[in-house]
Amino acid sequence: MNVREMLEEREKQVLSPFAAKSALSKGRVRPLTPCDLRTDFQRDRDRILHSKSFRRLQFKTQVFLSPEGDHYRTRLTHTLEVSQIARTISRALSLNEDLTESISLAHDLGHTPFGHIGERTLNRLTADGFRHNEQSLRVVEKLEGTEGLNLTWEVRDGIFNHPGGNEPSTLEAQVVSRADRIAYINHDIDDALRAGILKPFELPEPCLHVLGRTHGERISTMIRDIVTASDNHREIRASQEVQAATDALRAFLFERVYQDKWREAEEQKCDFVLSQLFAHFMAHPGDMPLEYVTESYREGTERSVVDYLASMTDRFAMRLFNKLFVPETFAVI
Ligand code: MG
Predict the structure, then answer these.
(1) In the predicted model, is pLDDT for residue 333 greater than 70?
(2) Can you say how many angstroms the Cα of residue 193 is from the centroid of all Cα atoms in its chain?
């Protein structure tokens, strides 16, 4: 028996009857010779971690656009927080922690530059619309490397179905969806406080009463509540009280941070940058790197322009905008 077979055997013995077992995976589009050291879900995690799209997350916006401060979240640190929260819940419920980790690390790979502003811009500009979860799936199925990462069905299902309102097929994917929400609600409050957009006394008192007064307390309450409410159930859930307080806090964030006037001017600039880049590459698709030009032969110019734009980091999009549309300064000493 090799190490992988031993790990698969252990999953059957130790994990919950509701957990996804790597040996029972629905598999990959292109079958691979099994690894002797890692289960299929562990192998997926490594494929994601070593991808170019994963490294680009470090220069993509979470909420604060290309933040000057070193302490604000980026799409990468958000992803790592989601992964840690999801793994804690998964382990506590005897679910498959490896599957949870793989879905978490890949869930936002399709995010555009400038966060949800970029997502809205691409959605507005394209005939078929644009949603980051669909793009994340496209990244792992087609765009990364020459023919995608060839991940297992369970990981791909979790990536596509991570936004609220979707219905993923595994409990592990449901955990990621919850962990995503726990992570962003809490770290966006933390970043908004750091930026002075919110003052501590402005946070809604009834929410703090239920969830806790500090960042750490609130995360802990949400995690523990899910673990208690979901134990031995076929779905991941929260208690009514904590769910209501979390929803209220999220609504407060939408009103005060995500949709507030302070963002409007900056949002318009991001929208303008992406719109100009979109128009430029639609008119000159040959200016894109070869991989996107080749892809365009199969699915059309608009699709390849969207893939190229969505792949960009904030700083790359801004540099490219400057290069294409802003005259270079000529310094005479
Ligand atoms: Mg996310």
Answers:
(1) no
(2) 23
Is the C-alpha dihedral spanning 63, 325, 129, 109 positive or negative? negative
Q: How many whole angstroms from 245 Cα to the centroid of ligand 1?
A: 20
Task: Give the pLDDT confidence of 162-187 residue by residue, as tens digits.
Answer: 998 899 999 999 999 999 999 999 99
User: Domain 3-16+27-325 falls in which CATH fold?
Assistant: Hypothetical protein af1432 (1.10.3210)
Angle, CA of 128, 172 and 5, to the nearest 5°: 115
Is the distance from CB of 85 to CB of 183 less than 8 angstroms?
yes
Residue 241 Cα to ligand 1 middle (Å): 24
Instruction: Output the CA 287–ligand 1 centroid distance in Å.
Output: 31
pTM exceeding the 0.85 threshold for the entire prediction:
yes
Which residues lie at CB < 5 A from ion ligand 1? Answer: 108, 180
**Residue 105 Cα, ligand 1 centroid: separation in angstroms?**
9
Residue 30 CA to ligand 1 centre (angstroms): 28
Q: What is the pLDDT of residue 17?
A: 96
Give pLDDT tens digits for 196-252.
Answer: 889 999 999 999 999 999 999 999 999 999 999 999 889 999 999 999 999 999 999
Residue 122 Cα, ligand 1 centroid: separation in angstroms?
18
Cβ atoms of 75 and 61 closer than 8 Å: yes
Q: What is the mean pLDDT of the chain?
A: 93
Task: Calculate the alpha carbon distances from 136 to 112, 127, 231 in Å.
Answer: 10, 19, 30
Query: Helices (DSSP H) in the chain: which residue ranges?
Result: 3-14, 40-49, 52-56, 75-92, 97-106, 115-125, 132-138, 153-160, 171-195, 205-211, 215-230, 240-253, 264-283, 290-299, 301-311, 314-325
pLDDT at residue 296 is higher than 60: no
Ligand 1 centroid distance, CA of 62 (Å) = 9
Say how many Å lie between the CA of residue 278 and the centre of ligand 1: 25
